[in-house]
Amino acid sequence: MNRALRVLPLTAVALMSACTSAAPAAAPAPTPTPTVLPACTKLPDPVLPHSAGELTEQQSGVYCLPRGQRVDVFLTAARSSDLWSQVQASGSILAPTNTGVMTAPIGVTPAMFVGTTDGTSVLTSSAPSGKTWKVTIVVKG
Amino acid sequence: MLRSALVAGSAAALAVAGLAIAAPAGASELAPHHMNAHAAKTAATATGGNLAYGGGNIVTAPTVYYVYWGSQWGTSSVTNDPSGEVALQQSFFSHAYGSGDTFFTSQTQYCQGVATGTTQCNGAGTPVGHPASNPLGGTWLDSSAKAPTRPSTAQIAAEAVKAATHFGISGDNVQVVVDLPHGVVPSGFKTQYCAWHDHTTAGNGADLPYTNMPYITDAGSGCGANFVATGSSGVNGADEGITIVGGHEYAETLTDPAPSSGWVDSTGAETGDKCAWISSGQGASSIISLNGANFAVQSLWSNNFGGGAGGCVTSYTSASNQH
């Protein structure tokens, strides 16, 4: 058996081995790194139907929102010239939803969000006087 | 050659793996959130854009029913109504029909039976109904027991279902207004909301739109008292919130009886929400005449105002004649 013939089976085995080991690396999605979500507090009870809970300008910190459920926000201005701005949610785990079901009182900035995927989002608002409001929402299924 | 094939295969595998890793990082985020402030303001806030059809029902033949919940109202007739809310509510809706009502007509531009996402019906589909005669279908004093001093959302819904059974009604063309008596303050009233509408299921399994309407004047200026200058209209400033909030919720039920499957904007706001508490400029709340009687109202959103740009209006006879 010449040298070429002796090497060929080994090369073929090596190739098959390489192919079989390469294939799994191409097909499946990479193993996600487990996300450690921060500890959170239960939301205060809601005042509207279909809601998991509500937040006002009195709250701060980290609150839990079950995935697929809604959190309502009501920020009340201390005076008419110091209205809270529209509530912003960071990232994409919270989706804005219908606030139109209610008539909000004058001076109240409402917002509603549904938790769409697990993760954290920061809700923020500010007032002309320089006051700021921030709450972290932890969405988990 | 075989070595080359091996290297090429491995490179391809790594490239595929690389794409698989890269894809999530490139996934798009939702657009930034915008929301109306709901505070007294000087012009319509256009955030959220026009209303778009969500694929659900609208109200094609509206009829309104009132239940006065609780013996606090009185035992055999309404006797405890210090602001005269019952009479004013009944008068408001009893005048909201026909050609003498050019206020709620702005909502007839919205329709059902068109593609989801539609913003201009242009005569397609079935429009929101505008009653040819008095749309007040009935009233009922449910004095069988005292209403809870702080009723829950579930209790309010249950009272709506009870009233629907009393009236023998159901479906999205009816709306039950649950009137809470003076002094009854459900959680969130005055501070988080003035009123709200929702839907539940009637005893026969059909949909049932309803409104939680607390005793609005108990909230004072926060829910509309003296919001509009009355001039010589004869309107009582202290009672303005009754019709401002009442009209807001009625219009939103017309266009979105089963929230939020009807007409809402990209932020989820409904027709009244987009125009609440405007104090001056286009769409300012005002005193209007309905068949000869004057009432304070807020404006409602009109998609076809301004050539399709949308805006808040208090008078509508056609797409080209509205303000």
Automatic annotation (TrEMBL), chain A:
Signal peptide start and end residues: 1-22
Keywords tagged on the record: Signal
Top-rank taxon: Bacteria
Protein name from the UniProt record: Uncharacterized protein
Automatic annotation (TrEMBL), chain B:
GO molecular function, one term: peptidase activity
BP GO annotations: proteolysis
Signal sequence, renumbered to the chain: 1-22
Annotated region (Disordered), positions in chain: 127-149
Protein name per the record: Serine protease
Species the sequence originates in: Streptacidiphilus jiangxiensis
Keywords: Hydrolase, Protease, Signal
